[in-house]
Design brief:
By secondary structure, the protein is mainly α. It has a domain of 204 residues. Helices cover 72% and strands 3% of the residues. A hairpin with a 2-residue loop joins strand 1 and strand 2. The relative contact order is 0.21. Keywords: Amino-acid transport, Cell inner membrane, Cell membrane, Membrane, Transmembrane, Transmembrane helix, Transport. Belongs to the binding-protein-dependent transport system permease family. LivHM subfamily.
Length: 293
Amino acid sequence: MTIFLQQLVNGLSLGSIFALVALGYTMVYGIIKLINFAHGDIYMVGAYIGYFVITGLHLGVVPAIIIAMAACALLGVVIEKIAYKPLRHASRITSLITAIGVSLFLEYTMQYFMGAGVRTMPDDVLLEGVLQIGGVSITYTQLMIFVIAVLLMLLLQFIVKKTKIGKAMRAVSTDPDAAQLMGINVNATISYTFAIGSALAGAAGVLVGLYYNSISPLMGMTPGLKAFIAAVFGGIGIIPGAMMGGVSIGVLETLVAGYGGSLYKDAVVYVILILILLIKPSGLLGKNEKEKV
C-alpha cells in the first residue's frame, strides 16, 4: 500500500504536467478541429526559456514560468498566423502535415542553436526538503509543481467560463459562422486560443525541467504524444476531459513503472489510446455526434 500511495503521489505531479500540455491540444481542436502536433515542441521552447531565465537572469521559478508563458503565447500566435491561418479551409491532412513540419522546424532550430546535449537546472532553484506523511514521501519540488499546475488549470477554467474571451471561444467552438454573425471576431478568438494553450505548454515545460532536472531539444516529442493521448482519453475538445486524461495517464505511467514495468510504461499509454479508439472514440467525457449526410 505504501508503494502504491508513493507512486500515486508521483503520478499526480507528472499527470498535472501532462494535463497542462493536453489542454493546449484540446483547446485548439475544439476551436478549429486541428491537431497541433507542434504543441509538444512549444513546451520544449518554454523549458529552454525558463532555463535561461533562471541561469542567465538569476530569477526564481515563478518569474521563469511567467516569462516562459508570455514568450510561448507569442510563439503560438506567430505559428498560427504564419503556418495555420492560410490553411484554415484546406484539407485536414494538409494542416496535419504542416503541424508536423512546424514541429520538426522548432526541434532542429533549437538543436542548431543550443546543441543536442542535455542541460540541467541549477540545484538552488529546486526546493529542498521532503514532507513525510506516513510512509509516503512528497518532495517540496513535487508539491510546488502540483500546486502551480492546479492553479493554472483553475485560472483557465475561470477564463473560459467567466470572461468575455472565454465566452467567445465557446461560441466559436460551437458554431464559428453563427459567432461571426453575432459580432465575434473569429480570427482574434483563434489567436487567443493559441496564445492561452501555448502559454500553458510553456509553463509545463518549466515544470517538467524541474521535475526531471533536465531539458533537451527533443524533449517535447514523447510528452507531446502522451498529452495528445491524454486529450483523446478524456475527450478531445473537452477541457475537463483533458485535465482528467492528463492526470490519469501520469498516474498510470508511474504505477506501471513503480511495479517493475518501467520498460512498458510508454507501451501501456499507447495501448490505452488503441482501446479508447476502439471502445469509445469520443473519449470518456465525449459524446457521439450524429452527422447528417
